[in-house]
Write a structure and sequence with these properties.
8 helices, mainly alpha, single chain
Length: 208
Amino acid sequence: MKLSFITGLTARAILLSAAASAAIRPTSDKPCITTQRVNDRRYSVTDRKQALQFLIHFIGDITQPLHNENKAVGGNQIPVLWDGEKTNLHAVWDTQMVQNAAGGYGSAVITSFTNKLIAAIDSGIYASQKASWVTCTNVGTARACALSWAQDANKLICAYVLKDDETDNELNGAYYTGAKPYIELQIAKAGYRLATYVNNLAAARGED
């Protein structure tokens, strides 16, 4: 797998496009329209590239727990503080805590953070878990896989994200410290799933 490239793209999507909330909502168990378009030679290379970009964004987004939660519009209506500045819980999970976990933002930071996660996946703390992350990556069952990934991320809502009422609390402290392992885990899952899914798309497409 070209995991370094794919994971980097996922981290970039979460870090730099975090304000966008997306959901995969195909209408049947057939591949969703984004998956179909990536491999459909009736579309131009530009259109297929755009479909792949959406797919990268969606798979990154679906691993963020609050993108799969209805309460308070996914945390958007829960006011919190970050370094004393007013914001909301969704925004903090989308951006501030991810950037903190990565050590900042920018290409060099993303590369370093990506390499750290790759090492953890290859031979570190995630090595024994990674097979369970990709039990559903069949491009022919996009709906089922998207639902499975969403349910997996949603488990963290009660386990940590909304376990306590954080309204008006400062989150750059104990809350962030507790969230950091979950953030790194979810981004690692996103990258590994995306790499597997894109490889499966390539296999289904064959050579152009």
